[in-house]
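hey
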C-alpha cells in the first residue's frame, strides 16, 4: 500500500489563507476514523526546504493550499520538480522546489500533486468565508474519493468545473 502524505499549508489567522491547513485537518480526522494507516498529515504556515526530507519518506505527496488564482472552486494538478532558485530574502518555497530537492538530495521520486482551493479574503482574522467553505468541502469530497481507491491517483489533473 502506498505511503501518502497530505501536507496542508497556509495561515489560518488570515481568513481563507488557512484552507490548506483545514483540508489537512479534515483529512487526518477522516483517515483516522476510517483506518487509513498509510495516510499521514502535516501542516505548517509555509513550506521550507527542510520539508524535502519529510517528502522523501512517501510514495505520494499532496500539497494543499489556498489560491488567489481565478479557478473554479479547486484544482488538482501534478507537480513537476523545478530547481527555481530560492532567494535568501524569501521565507517560503514552492512545492515544485521541495520535490526537486527531494529528488536531488535524497534520490527519492514521489508522485506529487497540488490541491489548490479558491479563497476570497486574506485579512488578519480567523475563520474562512462562506464561499471558501463550500470550495473546501468540494475539494475534501474529491480528495476522499481519490484516497479511498486502491489506484489512488490515475489522473494528472482535475478542475472543479
Amino acid at each position: 500500500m502506498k505511503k501518502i502524505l497530505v501536507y496542508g499549508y497556509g495561515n489560518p489567522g488570515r481568513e481563507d489563507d488557512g484552507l490548506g491547513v483545514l483540508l489537512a485537518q479534515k483529512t487526518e480526522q477522516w483517515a483516522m476514523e476510517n483506518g487509513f494507516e498509510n495516510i499521514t498529515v502535516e501542516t505548517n504556515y509555509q513550506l521550507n526546504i527542510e520539508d524535502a526530507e519529510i517528502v522523501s519518506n512517501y510514495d505520494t505527496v499532496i500539497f494543499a493550499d489556498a489560491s488567489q488564482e481565478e479557478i473554479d472552486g479547486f484544482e488538482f494538478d501534478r507537480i513537476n520538480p523545478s530547481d527555481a532558485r530560492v532567494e535568501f530574502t524569501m521565507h517560503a518555497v514552492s512545492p515544485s522546489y521541495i520535490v526537486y530537492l527531494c529528488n536531488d538530495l535524497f534520490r527519492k521520486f514521489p508522485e506529487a500533486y497540488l490541491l489548490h482551493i479558491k479563497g476570497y479574503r486574506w485579512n488578519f482574522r480567523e475563520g474562512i468565508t462562506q464561499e471558501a467553505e463550500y470550495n473546501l468541502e468540494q475539494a475534501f469530497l474529491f480528495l476522499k474519493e481519490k484516497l479511498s481507491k486502491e489506484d489512488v491517483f490515475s489522473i494528472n489533473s482535475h478542475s472543479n468545473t
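The longest helix spans residues 130-148. The chain is about 30% helix and 20% strand.
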